[in-house]
Amino acid sequence: MTAFIGRRDFITLLGGAAAWPAAARAQQGERNRRVAVFTALAPDDPENQSRIAAFQQEMQRLGWTEGQNLRITYHSVGSDAEHVRKEAAELVTLAPDVILANGGTTMVPLHQLNRSVAVVFVNVPDPVGAGFVASLARPGGNATGFTVYEYGISGKWLELLKQVAPGVARVAVLRDPANPSGMGQWGVIQAVSPSFGVELRPVDNRNADEIERGITTFAQEPNGGMIVVANAFSVVHRDLIIRLAARHRLPAVYPYRFFCIGGGLIAYGVDDIDQYRRAAGYVDRVLRGARPADLPVQGSSKYQLTVNLAAAKALGLEIPPTLLARADGVIEQRCFAVVR
Q1: What is the largest CA-CA distance in the chain?
Q2: What is the model's pLDDT at position 8?
Q3: 18 exposed, middle or buried (CB, 10 Å; 0-12, 13-18, 19+)?
Q4: Cys-Cys with 232: which of 20, 80, 105, 279 at CB 3.0–4.6 Å?
Q5: Separation CA 338–CA 340 (nearest Å)
Q6: DSSP state of 339
Q7: Do residues 212 and 244 touch, judged by C-beta distance below 8 A?
Q8: What is the pLDDT of residues 53-66, one digit of tens each?
Q9: ∠ at Cα 268 (265, 270), nearest 5°?
Q10: How does pLDDT run across 199-257, given as a tens digit for each residue?
Q11: Is 153-270+303-331 in the same CATH topology as 17-148+272-294?
Q12: Strand pairing partners for 35?
C-alpha cells in the first residue's frame, strides 16, 4: 500500500471529552480507531497538505487522540486508473474503520471493490449518476459524503471566460473522457456554447503527454481560450497546464482557487478545504456508530471566485471592475512568464 508522509500516523488531541461519561471515555481510549485517507495527490503537494491539515484540525476539535482512540494513515495513489485500482483493493483488505476518499478517481474502484468498509467521500461531482449512492437524501450503502458542485457551474466557466477575454472564439475544454463527471461538465458547456458564439474543442487530459500535445495543437490557431474541468488529472498536472496556457497565451478558467495561486488566470469553484473540514464531521459520526447509509450526501456550501491580476497583465487582458468587485480573492503576484 502506498502510504505517504513516511507512513507516519497523524493523531489528534481529545477535545470535549469532559462531556463524556467516564466509562465511555475509558472504553474509547482502549481502542484505536483506524481512518485511511485515499487521494490522488502527492504527499508534498501544497494543496494536499492544506487539505490534510484542515482534516486533522477538525478531527482534533472533535476529540480524537493519538494513542488513545485514533490512527490515521495517508495513501497517495496518483491518477493512473490501474494503479489506483490496485491500491484500492489493497486498502480494502486492510479494513480500516473509515476511508476518506477524494474525488471520483478514487471512488470508482472503492465502489467496485468494497461493500463493507465505510467510505466518506469529498470532491465528487455526481455520486448518484456515478452509482456511488442510491440518492442524495438516502445513500443506502456504505458510502456518503460531499458533492463538489452542480454540473451547471460548467456553464459559468464559459461565461467567465468570455467576460475576461471577449475576443475568444475557440475554446479548448480539458476533460477526462473516461470520467462520467467530465462528460457531464462537457455536456453543459456544449449546451450553452451557442449563446456565447464559441467553437468548442475537447482535449483529453489523461496524462502529461496527451495534455501537452492537445493544448499545443489547439493553440496553433488564433482567438483561443481554455476551460479546465475538475478531475484528478487536471489537479495532478495543474502546473503543466498553467505553464502551457501562459506559453501559448491562452486565457483559461479553472475549477479551484489553487490554480490561480499557481499562476492561472481565473478560477471559480468550491472551497475544497472546507469540504475536508466538513468530512471530518462525518468521519467522526461514523466512528461513533452512525451508518453512511443514514447520512445524506451534502452539497457544497462555499464557492470562491479568484482572479490573478499578474496573469491577466501578462496576457494583455483588462479584468472588468464588476468582476473584480465580486471576487473573493485577487492575486497580484506569482504568474509564470509568458513564452513568446
Answers
A1: 71
A2: 35
A3: exposed
A4: 105
A5: 6
A6: P
A7: yes
A8: 999 999 999 999 87
A9: 140
A10: 999 998 878 999 999 999 999 999 999 999 988 888 889 999 999 999 999 999 999 99
A11: yes
A12: 72, 98
Report DSSP state, residue 39: E
153-270+303-331 has CATH 3.20.20.70 classification: no
Alpha helices in 288-334 (DSSP H): 309-314, 321-326
Report the pLDDT averaged over residues 263-289: 95
CATH number of the domain located at residue range(s) 17-148+272-294 in this protein: 3.40.50.2300
Taking the C-alpha atoms of residue 204 and residue 90, their distance in angstroms, rounded to an integer, is 29
Sequence ranges of the domains in the chain: 17-148+272-294, 153-270+303-331
119 alpha carbon, distance to own chain's centre: 16
Q: Hey, what's the cell of 262?
A: 499557481
CB atoms within 10 A of CB 80: 17
What tens digit of pLDDT does each residue of 288-336 get?
Answer: 999 999 999 998 877 899 999 999 999 999 999 999 999 999 998 654 4
Q: What span, in angstroms and rounded, lies between the C-alpha atoms of 145 and 118?
A: 11
- SS3 state of residue 52: helix
315-335 burial by CB neighbour count: b if 16+ within 10 A, else e?
bebebeeeeeeebeeebeeeb
- At position 225, the amino acid (one-letter code) is G
Distances (CA, A) of 192 to 73, 185, 202: 43, 11, 15
